[in-house]
Amino acid sequence: MKVAANLQDTLTLNNGLAIPQVGLGVYKMTDEIEANFAIQSALRMGYRLIDTAAIYENEQIVGDAVRASDVSWDEIFLTTKVWNSDQGYDQTMKAFETSLNKLQTNYIDLYLIHWPGKDKNKYRETWRALEKLYSEGAAKAIGVCNFQIHHLEELLAVCNEVPAINQIENHPYLTQEKLRAYCQEKNIVVEAWSPIARNKLASEPTLNHLAKKYNKSVTQVILRWHLQNGTVVIPKSVHPERIKENSELFDFELSLEDMKNIHALNKEERFGPDPDQFENGF
Predict the structure, then answer these.
(1) What superfamily would CATH give domain 19-198+232-240?
(2) For the whole model, what pTM was predicted?
(3) pLDDT, tens only, 238-279
(4) Distance from the Cα of residue 8 to its chain's centroid
(5) Residue 281, pLDDT score
(6) Is 114 assigned a ligand-binding role in the annotation?
(7) Does residue 111 have an active-site annotation?
């Protein structure tokens, strides 16, 4: 399996589009000055993937930061998402236009359904809207977030386009091996949100042992584990030193045994909502 060798290295989605394997998440970045500084710092360091969402209430900030940077828009891979309350065909089309206006662009690289919700007919209608946007070129790729295997089966039974991405909570305490294997079988790239489990694994003995072994931080070990799993990662930070640390993943390689030891930490423990229960609110 090819693993990214630098911040511009990409994985190929099922429609041929290339997505950087490491990006910047901007969840909770709502302070305009702080977020602008963080995003521009990341772009200067070589980040080219930025992941936002309508519910984050910072699409305007992201658009402003990109336009103020020295990096041209077409060099950046931008992701945003439709929120639960905007699901359904017509509502999704309107929500997409709102996101375009806030981001100050005429297309989105990747547009995602943020959560499946409990109504399969509704997310099917939402997907129909995404397929329309994809066919028009307004979204260069489309995908989903937080879809379990049964959600994907329901969608694949009726869709014309297979999702390019499934963005899920994924970290050493929630390895999601069955779901990741299913996505691989269907040629759906897995993208990890909360890839370092909100820093809740900082004291995990196995990870600390490996951090010392490789002369890296626990965060870097976890992120490298994701890369070697073939997963796209979008760690979030507003601190330039952390953003830099999160990018320094390409000068070491975890052994097969160490990969297995990290896999063995799985506890099926979520730090975010359960996709089968989550409807609205955040």
Answers:
(1) NADP-dependent oxidoreductase domain (3.20.20.100)
(2) 0.97
(3) 999 999 999 999 999 999 999 999 999 999 999 999 999 887
(4) 16
(5) 57
(6) yes
(7) no
